[in-house]
Amino acid sequence: MLKVVVRVLVCAVFFFGGIAHFVVTADFVGIVPPFLPWPKVIVWATGIIEFLLVIGILSPSLRSITGKLAALYCLLVLPANIYQAVSDVPIFGGPVAPELLWLRIPLQFVLIAAILWSTSENNQKLIHTSTDSV
């Protein structure tokens, strides 16, 4: 059951993130590292990718491979998070506390772990409890 809850939360992150790529495009363009060409196209493409990841994660036959692709996607967008933290790029209409920008980087790895665990075909429990009596 916990796996399903985490999976739904992961899908919510990608779904609302995908929407944000189209609603506040200019803000996302601002965090695309300047060495990358066509930042608006990158923002729109990553928004579409996030919607496709939701569909794949919700589809049992595609879930496992999509989870791996989603984890890879999170690693590929990590430079944008790092660029935003290093350059203190404002988003959503104003500046963001530097601590939050830096916290987002390790949280990306928590998200990756949640993605991989919740989309894996392995049915092991996250927390093991012993039933042995002493």
UniProtKB/TrEMBL annotation:
Keywords associated with the record: Membrane, Transmembrane, Transmembrane helix
Domain of life: Bacteria
Ranges that cross the membrane: 41-62, 69-86, 101-119
UniProt protein name: DoxX family protein
